[in-house]
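LOG
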Amino acid sequence: MSKPQEDFLDKTSRFLAKREGIDKTLKVLRYTARLVVSLQPKDQELTRRLAAFEKSVGVSRKAFRLGKFLQDVNSLRHSQTKDAQFFLELVAYGGEGIYYFLEQFTWLVKTGALSKDLEERLAYASAFAELVGYAGNIWLSLLKLQKLMQQEREVEAAITKTCKEEGVTDAALEAKLGAVRFQRRLRTAFIVQDLADSVMALNDVAGGKIRGISSPVVLALAGLTSGGISFYKNWNL
């Protein structure tokens, strides 16, 4: 008997049962609220409520990062790459892992379990590690994107050759081309996501002193862009 097709409710239930599902949902909600606040609506009561909501969700999201650094440790442990690419993975996973590790202590500060005196130093250290991790991730994604583009050209060439020789297209090659193009678009979206997150991390490292990226609207849009892409990625897993 074939497995029944998953409907929207099934998918939503499965999505929200995962840590990443809840975290990315909260991320979209948080930066939507921040964007509305940054646009300075005339209703002051709405602004106050949304600002409080955004702050509360920000603290709540940190709880979902407990132990998350172990994923990066495992990724490095089981890496099969060598030489230069392994160095990039070390930068990417190492930076991200340190960020998630420090975020646990940031959460403890926010909840009052640790002294507020640690908050500024932890925020700077975690943002710096996060920025390093994104730099490594973007570099790795660019290498993967280059390989996908090369693969796409090879499949296109094979389809053209088949058409000339046989006068018909190969369904298997067409399907493969579609899959490669989807992966290329997805990889491009991941780069955009990391760039958006990098803007926010850079702003935190610089203490909001860089003109242009320190704008509340820019930061809210960057967060919403990143949240939307990560939501889509985890929804389709």
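LOG (cont.) second protein
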Amino acid sequence: MSDFGSEEGEEDQGPYLGEYEGGRNENEERHGHGKATLPNTDTYEGMYDCGKRHGQGVYRFKNGARYIGEYLKNRKHGQGTFIYPDGSKYEGSWVDDQRCGFGKYSYVNGDTYEGEWKDHQRHGQGTYTYAATGTKYVGRWQIGKREGHGELIHANHKYVGVFKDDKPMGKGKYVFDIGCEQHGEYIPIEQEKEDKGDDEEPSANIVPKWKAGQVTAIHLKTEEDMEE
């Protein structure tokens, strides 16, 4: 995931303050619509309020990234689209310069994530689609990892269960299109510890292993089940 493009220091990069064309207020601060070229050659065109980017605007970074959206006191805040140098793109909500709220991220490899964000990371309910296989994960996320209840949906079957630290773990079931489901659970199996050198303790590599249980017909939820 890309996070290129910092807008910090518009007025703090030395004596040269760039160029500006546009409105000013009675204090000679940038105010209203304006167009600026920053000392680092980034450009901004949009609304200002009392010297700060505020409202709708377009910010173009010298590295090729660009942001089209809303600002609040120089920070990306509200709805906006950020196109990163590698071609990936985020469209959605921003809070205090961070991806936060609901948004869609299109990755350079064709994968997409659409759902909730917090502090620049996938967090909350969301759907991640893997372009190479068409597989989808629909469920909960925590700090960028699959965490909590979710469904991993493949072409002709799906796994329904709990995820922990980005891996399926504990009780769950595989539901097949042919009309049956296999119950079971993922058991954590500790592999050989990874040696990280003399200064760090080797870390355990936990791999989930499926322990198959009973196969039954698909159980469709009834009104009674919904009420329980």
